[in-house]
Amino acid sequence: MRRVAYLFERFPSFGQTFCYREVAELLRQGCDLTVFSIRRPTSEPPADWAMEIVERISYLPEEAALLAEVTQLTRQGKLPQEAVRAMEEWGRRTDFLRLAQAAVIGPRLRELGIERVHAHFAGMAARTAYWIREFFGIDYSLTAHANDIFAPRDFAVSLPMIMERAVAIVTESDFAADYVRSHFPAEAARVHRVYNGLDLSRFQPATFDADPPRIISVGRLIEKKGFRTLIAACARLRRMGRAFHCEIIGDGPLHEELSAQIQAHGLRENVVLAGPLAQADVAARMAAATLFVLPCTRELDGGMDNLPTVIMEAMASGLPVISTPIAGVPEMVEADVTGALVPPDDPIALADAITALLTEPARARRFGARGRERAAEKFSIEPNVMALREILQRL
Predict the structure, then answer these.
(1) Torsions phi, psi for 229 (to 5 deg)
(2) The whole model's pTM is what?
(3) HSE, side-chain direction, 13 A CA sphere, residue 30
(4) pLDDT digit string (tens) for 189-207?
(5) Integer Cα distance of 237 and 234 in angstroms
(6) Residues 275-322: pLDDT tens digits?
(7) Cβ distance 344 to 226 under 8 Å?
(8) Which of 116, 226, 357, 375 lies at a CB distance of 3.0 to 4.6 Å from 364, suitable for a disulfide?
(9) SS3 34
(10) Per DSSP, which regions of 53-171 are E strands?
(11) How many CB atoms lie within 10 A of CB 61?
(12) Which residues contact residue 145 at a Cβ distance below 8 angstroms, ignoring those fewer than 6 apart?
């Protein structure tokens, strides 16, 4: 079986539980997997993460130690002359650490007999994988997610260069796959859609017995999640005299701004910013909720969500879902079947959709039940990771 190394910018990360699930399932399916992370996590791994996976991660050293290791490898003759020459010519130009990281990882991959690197996100990890290929001839594939393709940053190793060299390009949705094929037509044959997967057994069906009804949302507190719109819709619900409790799980740069918005609207008794929670705690909160809402929006630079895993989790929990028709969201949420889709940045339409489901509990339960069925049909982790494994093993 082909040996594969996974390369992340930072692993684990609270906002990327889908990456952990993918690694865990690949291991369960017998894939011989080595995991590298360029950066260390900013917090301890969640308590419910398997130590087998946490202990498998090899972290790269910080800049000074990294460059010292490159110097040592050069003196020992373990680096190809092409790598030494490229790093000398590159000097301290922007992104020079990607070359050094590739120089440190490459000899380890050769020692382990690893034949393929798979990078998550078409960003830092993919740029490092690009140089691994240039220096050591080890092919790479990648999974592209959202802003890394919808709003890429400008680097000397550009997104077109990354896509051109990749032997396989995986995306999470049909929308993203079509987007990549249209922007990189020469690479269209190497683009594959593989949905993120869930272990549905970890999500218990919602009981719908909360009083007042509970609205739940999950995500990093950033613009594209649409939390400003959700809070504005909650303000409208309160003015209408509707009883409810809304919990937003996650953390991020908009925490203070959203807290101020909650305060300004007099919503401290109705809306709570709960901070980040472990996967098991998120699943428990969903099981106790009435409705899941994530009003995704587009950012000014084109950034947007692609296929928010939290929507899958809500569907697996049997919750009706309200979101927006952004990117791959309609591949999960079907209007009047599993929930509702409203225009982005429209708190009035969002409040109306929430009201409609809260006042028709039988309809809400029906949407939730159909959502759980759809999650099982499309997003079960075993078949999706099996499809990914076949791509990783392919010559």
Answers:
(1) -65, -40
(2) 0.92
(3) 5
(4) 999 999 999 999 999 999 9
(5) 5
(6) 998 888 999 999 999 999 999 999 998 889 999 999 999 999 999 999
(7) yes
(8) 357
(9) strand
(10) 57-59, 116-120, 139-144, 168-171
(11) 13
(12) 120, 121, 122, 171, 172, 176, 306
